[in-house]
Amino acid sequence: MIGSTSASTYWRATASLWQREVVRFLRQRSRILGALGTPIVFWLFIGSGLSQSFRPPGSNEVVDYLAYAYPGTLAAILLFTAIFSPISIIEDRQAGFLQGVLVAPVGRTAIVLGKILGSSTLALMQAALFLTLAPVAHVPLSVLSVVALMAVMAVVSVGLSGLGFWMAWSMESTQGFHAVMNLFLMPMWLLSGALFPATGATGWVRVVMMVNPLAYGLTAMRQCLDVGTGAGQVAHGPGLAMSLVVTTLFAVLMLSVSIRVANRRG
Q: Model pTM?
């Protein structure tokens, strides 16, 4: 690990891998369009269609669905970018680049940190771009809310990137990775409270939403935005303190698991 090389070499390797992930992504415009464009189109179409008829359980007022779904769309951007960015691990293995990095005189933890930080940075960049559409959703932003939101999204991104790294490290093909993650990601997002609050769901769905780590990250994001149009009040999720604790623990767990699997020999 870090003891096998100097600290400067270790962090230089981490920074190099982080930079490679960012530059590689920015050069592939189709990835930018897919990761950012799809959630935006989905949000605009579904949000516009339900904007005048969304009435959550326990509420007698129609809630602006564009505002309600706005944090959920942010979560979708983070989720799909952070999860699918580590697919480069499979591509690097097939091209022989990963094998060259593994035999370099740096700890494998540097590889994990470089990849995860790169994926998290890409997710945050795209989420920050989506914040410019807040006026369309009638979501007011302040300097404090943006700073708090970016901090929460950074933790969420690290957790999701760690999950993506863990899955990609053990996969041999990009096709298999896409198949497994598509089956896993959509339910994770749908049952996070992104499209509907837990109060209107059946019993077993509420249970699944309670154990979904993304639901806690989304709740923290909603409370940072504090939309004030009624959308925040209908979520009825866990408190901010619990949401931050669970989100942080998930990020630490995924980072630890990724480091552990990467340091396995074989």
A: 0.83
